[in-house]
Amino acid sequence: MCGIVGYVGQRPAQDLLLAALQKLEYRGYDSAGIALVENKSLYLEKRAGKVSDLMRVLKASRATVGLGHTRWATHGPPTDQNAHPHCDCQKKIAVIHNGIIENYLPFKEELQARGHIFLSQTDSEVIAHLIEERYDGTNLLEAVREALRPLRGAYALAVVATDSPDEVIVARQGSPLVLGLGEHETFAASDIPALLAFTKTMVFLNDGELGVLRRDGVELCDFEGRRITRAPQRIEWDVVTAQKQGYKHFMLKEIHEQPHALANTLQNRYELATGKIVLPELQKLTEKIHKAQMVYCVAMGTAYYAALTAKYLWREFFRVPLAVELASEFRYSKPYLDENTLVIAISQSGETADTLGAVREARARGASVISIVNVVGATLTRESDATLYTHAGPEIGVASTKALLAQLAALDLLGFFIAQSRGWLAPEQTRPALESLVRGPALIEKLLQQEREIVRLAQVFYEKEHFLFLGRDLLYPIALEGALKLKEISYIHAEGYAAGELKHGPIALIDAEMPTVVLVTKESVYEKVFSNIEEVKARRGIVITVTDQINKEIERVSDFIIEIPPSSRWLAPLLFVVPLQLFAYHIADLRGTDIDQPRNLAKSVTVE
Ligand code: G6P
User: Fold this and answer.
1) What superfamily in CATH does domain 250-438 come from?
2) Contact predicate 362/341, CB 8 Å
3) N- to C-terminal Cα distance for the chain?
4) 8 Å CB contact between 198 and 187
5) The domains spanning 3-241 and 448-591 adopt the same CATH topology
6) What is the 575 CA–ligand 1 centroid distance (Å)?
7) pLDDT tens per residue, range 285-331
8) Fewer Cβ atoms within 10 A, N terminus or C terminus of the chain?
9) Are 397 and 602 in contact (CB under 8 A)?
10) Residue 240 pLDDT > 70, yes or no?
């Protein structure tokens, strides 16, 4: 993971790099560092801890060229030495790296045998020493290109050298990197929001490409040294949407943005009068969609739960048996893949290494890939045959919230589209589902108004150490998501189970100390889930019922009730998840955890 940023321009680089680093901290926040080039010398400072800890020890500098890094440790614990940038022996070259160099060890041993002194336990430090051996003080780009040639693994990196004081070299293989163009200044960063305050004109670097950043622009080439020309893109996200806007945390802001995220994702993609789904971005795959005999859905984390939810709906409404797999398992499970296979890859960031790996495998074996992605221009979009964007806006909080709702809506649209193109579903049959979905934003708004009650519930439960979440059918993946949210940000042990599994294990855990959150809808297997609640109560468990069906029976067996407005099978998963997000958020807030940057986690997991 890690976040990287580079700058060449006319403004003092230090403040600018630090501002960008703070925007990138969601990617990793166990240590941070900065390298500035001024008067042919290197000013380098790095520390275990957050960017704010680094800021406290920095000296003022007028340098206009530099690099910044925020780390999520892979090789070597978070210490001052292991923080980036890493240097050559002479302290004339500084390198920052996001990714993993898989074959670094033999290079490190050879370099040590040739007298290079290593100061860290990282894989990244070899890059600085390899460049040192290839750099004669003139062509830094060439030296970086040569140094990277034998290395395997994933990287986005940036390099400065005191002998090339007016440029930053960048390279990308498997980890994200975007370049920004300003007036007499250029930038590089791991993602778009880090640069939005400075420029909206951006160029995306692809895998296998290098770039030179100079004040008058960027030059790109591939690993063979061939020049590449690429038109810049204008990014329409604004700085304001990438800020907290008065909310205590990004996560809370993003929970409250869900009505918009849903409305934006649905907008202009259907004709309500006819029920027709309009997705021109998928038109080129019509033939593949017709022929598809096998459809997989691959994703990780919260996006995986979106896929699991779709499995139920697709099977029921579209006659499409959807094989849903964790991308990390899919790739190594010898999946059946051929030219009649369709793979749907879901990812908020579009940078998750496992999801990218699954997609590469699928395409190499002839399958077609449709991705559902939130971040414009992300790697996954460029490695798919077609992309359906979720328009949730930038999601900064590490725990995903609004992206999930947008993914669920996009999966519904995609399901309708496939069923309509294959003639399984007439547009007019789609209308009731669409009519229900478009009511979603208003119903979610209503749910968000119950936040005070959820705060009160959080006050009752925030000191508990274990939670169980139960759901059946469509609400089973939502139970999994509820448990994931709670453990991610509050560090409480939480398990999500299919309610039917209760008797096969988790019931043994139930006692007066372990609350169980049960999701019950009148839409599906109500009686069975109700019996599960009785079973919990019979063991003196505490029951928090989340339901769209309040009646005397439910009131009798529940210790607490969260009410969900009645809706449809299309909308129920989107509605039930909202109070679970708020519950996890307020419990974490009461426990005082670092909600937007929970320990050990990162927003985009760009390593396998
Ligand atoms: C990380 C994040 C999760 C996210 C998962 C998948 O674990 O912390 O919030 O759901 O990655 O990320 P993606 O960007 O592929 O949706």
Assistant:
1) Glucose-6-phosphate isomerase like protein; domain 1 (3.40.50.10490)
2) yes
3) 10
4) yes
5) no
6) 21
7) 999 998 899 999 999 999 999 999 999 999 888 877 889 999 999 98
8) C
9) no
10) no
* SS3 state at 417: helix
Active-site residues, by number, are: 2, 603
Write out pLDDT tens, residues 192-221: 889 999 999 999 998 899 999 999 999 999
The domain spans of the chain are 3-241, 250-438, 448-591
CATH of domain 3-241: 3.60.20.10
Written as six digits, the tokens of 357 are 């790996």
Task: Calculate helix-pair angle for 451-461, 572-591, nearest 10 degrees.
Answer: 50
Q: In angstroms, rounded to a whole number, what is the distance separating the alpha carbons of residues 197 and 185?
A: 13
304 CA from centroid of ligand 1 (Å): 9
Helix, strand, coil percentages (3-state) for the chain, rounded to 5, are 40, 25, 35
The ligand 1 site (C-beta within 6 Å) comprises: 300-303, 347-349, 352, 355, 398-400, 601, 603-605
Q: Give all strands of the β-sheet with 493-498 in edge-to-edge order.
A: 493-498, 466-471, 515-520, 542-547, 560-563
Residue in 346, 348, 371 to alter for ligand 1 test, most ligand atoms within 8 A of Cβ: 348
Residue type, 432: P
Determine the distance separating the centroid of ligand 1 and the alpha carbon of 606, expressed in angstroms. Answer: 10
Beta pairing class for 466-471 and 515-520: parallel
C-alpha span between 128 and 79 (Å, rounded): 19
State the closest ligand 1 atom to the C-alpha of 355, by its place in the atom list counted from 1: 15
pTM reported for the whole predicted model: 0.76
Residue with tokens 């478009």, as numbered in its chain: 438
413/279 Cα distance (integer angstroms): 8
- Which residue's C-alpha comes closest to atom 8 of ligand 1? 603
The H or E element containing residue 552 is helix 552-557
Q: Whose CA is closest to atom 7 on ligand 1? A: 301
Rounded Cα distance between 117 and 200, Å, is 41
